[in-house]
Amino acid sequence: MVEVPQHIVAAMTNDPDDRHVVAAAIVAKAQIIVTSNLKDFSAEALEPWGIEAWHPDDFLLELDNQFPRKMIQVIRQQSEDLQNPPLTVAELLDKLEKNNKVKKFTANIRLHNIF
């Protein structure tokens, strides 16, 4: 959790309802904001702060491209940890694809043949 001074929030130029998110990213020295709501985080509003907005699908795909073994491990562990309801890896990927709209990521994970 970061405390964001109000004057930083007021200086933001992105969507007014989401200015606190960019301000928090600045205070936290984040380089990326991961959001499905890209329309409220324009490149023009983020560029002065050295921040980019990434869709979760692109972010997860990049992690999988950089760290494939770790991402496979994470997906397997998440599948094992789910109890209510329990999900196989295939079912978990189906759910991620449908509910979280991370189709590129799930397609890439499926290429690893981890079932």
From TrEMBL:
Residues 56-110 form the VapC50 C-terminal domain. It comes from Amazonocrinis nigriterrae CENA67. This is VapC50 C-terminal domain-containing protein. Pfam families: VapC50_C.
